[in-house]
Amino acid sequence: MSNRGNYAQAEAMYQQCWEVSKKTLGEHHPDTLNVLNNMAVAKDGQGNHDKAVELLQGCWEARKEKLGEMHPDSLVSQDALANALKNQGNCTKAEKLQRDCYEISKKTLGINHPETLKYKKHLDIMITNTN
Question: Does the domain at residues 3-129 carry the CATH identifier 1.25.40.10?
Answer without folding.
Answer: yes
